[in-house]
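Ticket 4471: requesting a sanity check on a complex prediction with adenosine-5'-diphosphate. Repro inputs:
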Amino acid sequence: MRSRKIKNANGISIRWKLILYMTVFVAIILLVTWLFQVVLLDTFFRAVKRNEMQEAADHLTEKLGSEELSMAAYSSAVDHSLCVTVFELGSDHSEMLINVDATGGSFTATLSFEQLGKLYEKALGNGGDYFTRIAFGGFEVEENEGFEKFPFYDATESNSKIPTKNMRTVYVRVVDRGDISYMILMNARLQPLDSTVRTLGTQFVWITAIILVAGLITVLLLYRKISTPIVQMNDSAKLLARGNYDVVFSGKGYRETKELADTLNYASHELSRLDRLQKELIANISHDLRTPLTMIKGYGEVMRDLPGENTPENMQVIIDETARLSALVDDLLDLSKLQSGANTPVMTEFNLTEAVREVMVRYDALIKHRGYLVEFVCSQEVSVCADRGMILQVLYNLINNAINYTGEDKWVSVEQTFANGRVRISVSDTGKGIAPEEMPLIWDRYYKVDKVHKRATVGTGLGLSIIKGILELHDAAYGVNSGVSKGSVFWFELPATRIASLPTEITKEI
Ligand code: ADP
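Returned structure tokens:
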């Protein structure tokens, strides 16, 4: 057994790959969570509140001047947790029409007239709408707290810098109705949101730690689950590589490894079969080579030493044995060429019927005296496009086999039929046939049904594999119909390129 060291492959193991992927995955999840829950939560919340306030303001604008205004203000405030105030501003007097507060702590009441006036002007200057953020009580907050400055409050004038996080998002809408104009003032609390963000930030640290630990445990479990069957199969494959064909691959765990194990089991079974067949072939070929060589040597020596033995019959033995040797060598060469892909078919159009007749004629000389009955039945002249030499070889091999394996009556028939644009050549014999379980195997190289090697009747075991190789090169359909004691019919089909009728059926007897 050829011993070759099995190298251990370099590269990252599944475990580290899994850890890497899991780390990236966890990092992405944490990043997204952090982005949405901590960084962007405030932005999202304010955007949602802005929308709600704008919609509520639209609704109130429709109801301005009607009796339904207070009801609309009330439901808007309660539904969206807002503080809603509506001012009516006339040329001679102004008044607060409604003030509904669903936020807890009336914010509007903390604003001075001056501040309200500034908000009104900002909204007016902004086309009727104005958004801002203001600290509860109207105080300007410290800049480094991260909040906007009180928008209508000059920071330089202010000396009341009281830091507070009780912020409001404020929306002002001014609606002009001729003599009267209205100012809708809405605000919502931001404070619960700030604490939510802080809570989530703290939770985030815990979430990170828990996800990392859970991820690591998952990776280790996954690694065990994935790698165990692979490692086991690798061990078995190493045994197989050393020539142990009894090894069994078991890919327990998941479907992919089970499939891989099945494939490897099949491969090892095939390898062991081929190995056995190859050994048989070498034994058979050595036997087949040695016997004619011994005969040739023996007859040659006799003819050299005994002048009376220098007869044509003895000469014929030497010629026959040489022919057998060259047939064997030819078969081996043909098969190796077919297997290496060196044989590309040269497609030409030729008369197949004529070619079969030509082959039949060659059998005249070979088996004239042995009482064989070889028929050729056809009713059309059919041409095909194929490699003529290769198709002739298929015919020779099939007829040789039929002659080798036919029954006591020595009957062999070659039949040409035509249907659906295809011509079929069938070679039948009356031999002992082939058992169903053997049928798929006979096309394998080296395969012989009769395991006991009998030189006289059995060939090299290469004939059908050469036929298979050639017909597959031609994309031709082929097969065998047979059964034990029923004789065999080997056939192949080729697309016909031309057909012509024959006047009568031709039957040939050799
Ligand atoms: P061989 O040189 O042994 O005939 P082949 O490849 O031509 O090799 O055939 C393979 C096997 O198929 C044969 O050993 C034989 O068992 C079986 N076989 C082939 N042709 C026939 C046939 N016409 N009748 C019965 N068995 C056949």
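Notes from triage: Residues 401-402, 405, 429, 431, 434, 442, 447-450, 458-465, 488 surround adenosine-5'-diphosphate (CB under 6 Å). Leaving this open until the requester confirms.
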